[in-house]
Every structure is written in structure tokens, then in C-alpha cells.
Amino acid sequence: MEKHLVIGASGQLGIELVIGLQERYGIDAVVASDIRKGNDELANRSEFTKLDATDAEAVKKVITEGGFTTVYQLVAMLSAKGEADPVRAWDLNMKSLMNVLECAKEGLKVFWPSSIAVFGPEAEKDETPQDVFCDPTTIYGVSKVSGELWCNYYFEKYGVDVRSLRYPGLIGYRSMPGGGTTDYAVDAFYKAIEGVDFECYLKPNESLPMMHMDDAIRATLDLMAAPADQIKHRTSYNLSGCSFSPEELTLEIQKHCPNFNTTYNPDHRQNIAASWPNSLDDTKAREDWGWKPEYGTKELVEAMLNALRN
Ligand code: AKB
């Protein structure tokens, strides 16, 4: 029987992944772990184990005693927050990955999220290809490039079945993201529902790759369910949903909330966003394991506003 451990289960992605796994494999097939328990009722139907992902012994104990087949290691300090304390961000992001990869040598399947943050100023901005020179300017991006290489190393050297996706900005309604550069978009939806103006820390025309959370969870579950011989990239796959700028998002939200208004006050996060792609070429993910997004910008905006209104 499949048994899935989600480490970092109380974060924005973790909550949604636990629920997605419950729907696909059953509530008892999933164990959530984090340093604190979240308060999402659906996610909390599965067992919860308190776990510090940087504690190698604790990670090993939970994994070996739990009889898991698959581990999703989601713990990370994101791009904007990481810049405030780069050494701590590196430490958290790398230790949490390495602790799981070490356990996986005994025969675990592993998922680890990478990000559009692996790309830097040298990469093509539009339809950024799968394989390009990566020169990230954030420590988060540096840790993601390094992590991708570690994943590939554990696959080549020890045969670890490790799989990864380069997520765009993830847009979901169950919880607020924390510390990212793409987070502005989630905030905009909350402001639109509250009926207040939104002050954006990016420039109006700063376009970034984004994705509805349902697409991101489906991509993750499909990638992990694909036969191993279909997974040709053991670093990480480019994954594309839609792309929009704050200005384009505002116009789309205004179709549903005509009084919604965005003002602009760019800060240091604008530089991070400017170093990232506008859009990604995810042909390899489509070819290798059948990826296809369902949400364009219009569908994403409709779904977010409906969900938040409900
Ligand atoms: C961030 O903005 O740091 C994250 C990401 C793109 O990985 N959402």
C-alpha cells in the first residue's frame, strides 16, 4: 500500500498537497508533518507528526518508523524572506532536502519542489527553455539550483527515484503564502474581496509565470504517479500554467470587482521579479509525462474570486 509523508505540510503548498493526496489515495494513506500543526480542517483529517526537517535524526526516525513509500519535502524559505537572512535560508533549504535524500537511499520515492527562481538574468525571458544556464540572483534560487543538482546526483549515484517541478507563483485560497515574490497576486485577491485598494510592490508591467493551485497539485500527483522510465529529467521539470503582470491581473479582477484598484510602490522584490522569466517552455513535461494545464489567467481569476467569496 502507498503511504505518503508530507514534510512542511502546514505551508501554502503543503496544505493543498495533503488534501490532494487524501483525495487520490485516502486519508489514512497520508501523514502530515511540520514544526507546527496547521488549522485546515480537511488537511487535519490525516495523522500529524511534529517534525523539524533540519534535524537529521528526527527525519530518519519518522521516515523509517512510518513505513512510507513516498516523501514530499516542501520545507523552504522563499525568495524575498531568504534575502533578509541568506545563511539561514541556505541552511534550512539545503539541510531539509539532504536529510530526506539520505533516507531515500534505502528505497523511498521523493518529491522536492524547485522553482522559476532557478533562472537568472542570463536566461531567455520568454518561453524559457528547460535547459539553460542558471545564474539566480537570490539565495533561494541558488539553493534551488543546488538542490536540483543534488537530486540528480542521488538519482545517478544511488538510484533514488527523486522527482521535481519548477513551480511558478502558486495561487491558492486555502492559506496565505509567506515570504515569496509572487505572493502579491494572492494578496490582490483578498483585497478585491475585502473591497479595499491594493498596493503592489512590483511594477505594473512585471510579468511572471503563475499557476492555479489545483493545476500545481495535479501536476505533482501526476509526476509522482508516472512510470519511472518516463521521468527523463532528474534535476527538475519546467512547469507552465499562465503568465500575467500586476496590471493584467488588476484588469481581469476588475471584470468581476469593478471598483478594485491597484496602486504601485515597487520595492526590493521588483529586482527579484525582474531577474525571473516572463513565461516557461514546459514541452518536456508535456512530452514525458503528459502535463497539460487547465487554468489560464481568466479561469484562475474566476476560480479564486469564487472560492474566496464562498
Ligand atoms: C517565490 O516567489 O519565492 C515563490 C517561487 C516563485 O518559488 N513563490
Uncertain parts: none
Helix-strand sequence: EHEEHEHHEHEEHEEHEEHEHHH
Instruction: Give the strand content.
Output: 15-25%
- Shape, per Cα inertia axes: globular
Strand order, largest beta sheet: 3-2-1-4-5-6-10
Helix content: 40-55%
Ions, cofactors and other ligands present here are: 2-amino-3-ketobutyric acid
E-strand count: 12
Count of alpha and pi helical runs: 11
CATH class of the largest domain: Alpha Beta
Features:
binds 2-amino-3-ketobutyric acid; single chain; 11 helices; 42% helix; UDP-galactose 4-epimerase, domain 1; three-stranded mixed sheet; Rossmann fold; alpha/beta; seven-stranded parallel sheet; 310 residues; globular
Helices and strands in order, then pairings?
Elements (H helix, E strand, L loop, with lengths): L3 E4 L4 H14 L4 E5 L12 E4 L5 H11 L3 E4 L5 H6 L1 H19 L4 E7 L23 H20 L2 E7 L1 E3 L12 H11 L3 E3 L7 E5 H13 L11 E2 L3 E3 L1 H9 L7 E3 L3 H7 L8 H7 L7 H13 L1
Parallel strand pairs: 1-2, 1-4, 2-3, 4-5, 5-6, 6-10, 7-9, 8-12
Antiparallel strand pairs: 9-11
Helix pairs in contact: 1-7, 2-4, 4-5, 6-8, 6-11
Bound molecules: 2-amino-3-ketobutyric acid (AKB).
What would you say about this model in short?
The protein has 310 residues and is of the alpha/beta class. It contains 11 helices and 12 strands.
Structure description:
With 310 residues, the protein is α/β, with parallel strands linked by helices. The protein has two domains: 4-170 and 212-238, Rossmann fold (3-Layer(aba) Sandwich); 171-209 and 242-309, UDP-galactose 4-epimerase, domain 1 (Alpha-Beta Complex), CATH 3.90.25. Helices cover 42% and strands 16% of the residues. It has helices at 12-25, 56-66, 79-84, 86-104, 139-158, 184-194, 213-225, 246-254, 268-274, 283-289, 297-309, and strands at residues 4-7, 30-34, 47-50, 70-73, 109-115, 161-167, 169-171, 198-200, 208-212, 237-238, 242-244, 262-264. The strands form three sheets. The protein has a seven-stranded parallel beta sheet with strand order 3-2-1-4-5-6-10, with helices on both faces. The chain has a three-stranded mixed beta sheet with strand order 7-9-11. The two termini are 36 Å apart. The mean pLDDT is 97. The structure holds 2-amino-3-ketobutyric acid. The site of 2-amino-3-ketobutyric acid has 11 residues, from loops.
